[in-house]
Amino acid sequence: MISAIWEDKERRKAYLHPGKKRLLPTLWRMYKPVRQSPRILAACVGYALSNGVLPLLGVLVTYVLVGLLSSSAANPQTMFMAAGIYALAFFLCSALSNQLNNRNYTWFTWLRLDYLNRINAKLMTMDLGLFENSAFMDDVQTGFYSLNGNNDGLEGYYHKIFESGGTLVSVLLLSALLALQSPLILLASLAVIVIGLAAKTHLVKLRYRHQEDFMRHGRRLRLLGSEAANFQAGKDLRLYNMAGHFKKVFEPVFDANMRLHRMITGRELTLSFLESMTLAALDIVCACVLVNRRLAGAISTAEFVMLLSATVLYAQTILEFTQQLSFIKAESLYVQDTFNILEAQLSSLSDTGKVPGEGPVTVRFEEVSFSYPGSDRLVLDNLSFEIKAGERCALVGLNGAGKTTLVKLLLGLYQPTSGQIYINDVNIKTIHQDNLFSLFGAVFQEVNVLAFTIAETVAAREDGIDEARGIESLKTTGLWEKVSSFDKGIHTPLLKVMQEDGVILSGGENQKLMIARALYRQNTRIMVMDEPTAALDALAEQAIYQQFDALLQGRTSLFISHRLASTHFCDRILLLDGGHIAQHGTHEELMAQEGLYRHLFTTQGKYYQEQEAIA
Ligand code: ADP
């Protein structure tokens, strides 16, 4: 369904970025939490007023002091009193605006982190295949871009709009003061704002047009960086001296990135020159108007000095205001991208259905074909089979036959290119993701241990852990002896990335941990094991097999192993070859047939006998 969209650039763009990006709807949406909070609204208004009057206070004190100096009433007391009143007013306004700004800062940070949580949750439920679509992942990076820091993107936007309230009040007050002298000043300032905004908008659009390139380069640089520092790959990188190769891959990406930055910085330099010229022109207009008015006797010396100092502040304030407006315009594009990702339907699974009833389920593949994203090669080709409720099936086949792929489709992690998969006659597309996943106890071939405690890993949760059940699961897999020898027992942290006293288990021990996790999970209706013992030694493997009866009880099970002899506890064997089930039956039935199974079994048998003879 939606998977076809991602293959085509235009369709992907149309899907993820529907309609034109408009500032006002984005603002309306972003300010929903602000609109609903009278406290924050009051803080916005309070900040705008208290911060916005600060430049005017400075201008007024100039007027009062120069006026006093040039009048006969000038004496130290009145001068100090005027300066004191100014200092007090300045202190009160700036203290209030700083307080309001600082207190609201963390609230805006919280809003950003909340969006970050939501987008992370979205990624954790999207179709897994999308991770393999690098063009889509660049789009995702764009979506994350506006959530990256305090001063840019969504949070920067909130802060900037908050601050721009104060600047707007300053611009209005100073404009009113100066426009009283001549409307020419108002016209000139409007011209400066319009030219400044046009220049900045040009830059914003230029940068945004290249955003996809920035994201692509940035993602590649980060990936290369993390691969270079990857502890797991560290042995291979050193042994095969791959640093030089990394440098070679790194350099073109780095150069392309630098070329883009240089092009945009060059354009910025030209436009900043234009901006300085317009501001200088505004200063000249203001100065000419004021000098004329003073020479014509229309304003006093005190007013002249006050208005001149207002002119200087005016240019600065207008510059700040145009910068804030252009920032808001620029960041709204990126914020809109974040909203687009949040709104897009990225999972092909339904959000309602479930498989009714309890107990083991039937699994049926009907004419399922599948090719990985970005590839035309059919890994599974018109594949049909059924596993009955409670049946134990082994899935065997050569490396690359598509066994793991079949499991990924069954778990709903990828969608078939064509054909349907049913669990108890319910099409898995119609099953809610959580309901679908809760049907399975699964152990995968590749083991991904995260930096949680052993108990948290086995229970796959942080709280409400049934410790006794966790220990029981660890005992079944033969890992309890080792775990109980740790000082913190089942609460020992894994890995050393978060805690110094974390433990690093061996490949086989990690695999036992993963089996324990599948065992801990209650009420599962299908057990799927993809080479669950690949990293175990022969004794540990044998010990686990002895537990399999207890382990699989009451569940339909699909067991993948390249060791054909290890499938003896299964009711039926499915042999995958050429993208479909080439042979199926019991071990005896398959051995009685001329075919790949018998060939594989006898070849493996010879190999293991030879191994035993050597040993
Ligand atoms: P098996 O589990 O039987 O060894 P897999 O299901 O892992 O086989 O792989 C089947 C085929 O699909 C292989 O040719 C492999 O190269 C390809 N393949 C596996 N994973 C991916 C992927 N993420 N993207 C593209 N091709 C893949």
Strand and helix map with partners:
Elements: H1 3-7, H2 9-16, H3 23-30, H4 32-35, H5 38-52, H6 54-69, H7 76-125, H8 134-145, H9 153-179, H10 183-209, H11 211-228, H12 234-239, H13 243-295, H14 301-343, E1 363-370, E2 380-387, E3 392-396, H15 403-410, E4 418-423, E5 426-427, H16 433-437, E6 440-443, H17 454-459, H18 467-477, H19 480-484, H20 507-520, E7 526-530, H21 538-552, E8 556-560, E9 572-577, E10 580-585, H22 587-592, H23 596-614
Parallel strand pairs: 3-8, 3-9, 6-7, 7-8
Antiparallel strand pairs: 1-2, 1-4, 4-5, 9-10
Helix pairs in contact: 5-7, 5-9, 6-7, 6-14, 7-9, 8-11, 8-14, 9-10, 9-14, 10-13, 10-14, 11-13, 13-14, 18-20
The protein binds adenosine-5'-diphosphate.
Adenosine-5'-diphosphate (ADP) is lined by residues 132, 372, 375, 379, 397, 399-405.
Shape summary:
elongated
The CATH homologous superfamily of the largest domain is named ABC transporter type 1, transmembrane domain
Bound molecules: adenosine-5'-diphosphate
Assign the CATH topology of the largest domain.
ABC transporter transmembrane region fold
Low-confidence stretches: none
